[in-house]
Design brief:
2 strands; mainly alpha
Length: 77
C-alpha cells in the first residue's frame, strides 16, 4: 500500500474507533533535519490535524534535541 492509503486507513480507523488520545513516546529520537525524520514529523503533523484526538509526545530532554529547530521546529513546539 502507498503511504497515502496507509494514512487514510489509520485516520479512518482511529475516527471510527473514537480514539481521543494518542501517545507517542521516544519523541527525542525524532530528528527533523534528516529525510526520514522530516517525513515522520510531517506525518505526525498530518495525523494530528486529521484525527480528532489529543496527541501527547513524551521524550527525554526534548529541548536539547533538534526537534524544535529548523522550519518544522516551531510547528512541533
Amino acid at each position: 500500500m502507498p503511504q497515502t492509503q496507509i494514512t487514510e486507513a489509520v485516520c479512518h480507523t482511529y475516527i471510527q474507533a473514537g480514539v481521543l488520545l494518542v501517545m507517542i513516546d521516544e519523541i527525542h529520537r525524532l530528528n527533523p533535519r534528516t529525510t526520514g525524520g522530516a517525513h515522520t514529523a510531517d506525518l505526525l503533523k498530518d495525523l494530528s490535524e486529521r484525527i480528532l484526538a489529543t496527541f501527547v509526545y513524551a521524550g527525554i530532554n526534548v529541548t536539547d534535541t533538534p526537534l524544535f529547530a529548523g522550519t518544522r521546529g516551531p510547528q512541533l513546539a
